[in-house]
Amino acid sequence: MPAWTIWYVEAFPPLVALSLVAAWRWGGATELVVAFLYLAATDLQKIFAGVAGIRFVHFEPAVATIDIALLFGLSVLAHRRPRVWIVGSAALQLIGCLAHVAKAIQPAMPALVYEILMGSTGYPLLLLLWVGIAASKRKAARQARTDRGQAARRH
Fold it and tell me: What tens digit of pLDDT does each residue of 44-55 get?
């Protein structure tokens, strides 16, 4: 594995954990659920991914199942709370799931290609979550200003 991919892979779990903290502190319920889903999927993939060195040489059914479950969760949230960032997240996760389909159809696909296709949506997914957290924080601040203004008018 090229050196840059090690940094790409190793920096991701701490950023997911920080995203959960940010969602808890500044986000709403949807952002918190998405951050928890990302953390659970990241941890489960670390546990169930193949042995280092031979990882992603073959189709990874456990990782594919985790990715599909995450896709399902994001899709349900996107249906119930149709926000641009969550719909985009579900679409990106679908793209990530298609990497598993490609590996299943083309078993000769090199392991690095499979891993990059599968993992290339991780950071964009986090970025969309951060957009959702920022939007939730702005909405809460706007609501607080509106509530203060209405309370001041009543007195």
Answer: 988 887 666 567
Radius of gyration of the chain (CA): 19
- Name all contacts of 86-89 with Cβ < 8 Å and 24+ positions apart: 86/30, 86/34, 86/128, 86/132, 88/128, 89/34, 89/125, 89/128, 89/129
- pTM metric for this prediction: 0.87
CA-wise closest residue to 76 among 122, 44, 30: 30
The three-class DSSP label of residue 128 is helix
Site of tokens 């702005």: 138
Contacts of residue 95, defined as CB under 8 A and 6 or more positions apart, other chains included, come to: 121
**What span, in angstroms and rounded, lies between the C-alpha atoms of 63 and 50?**
9
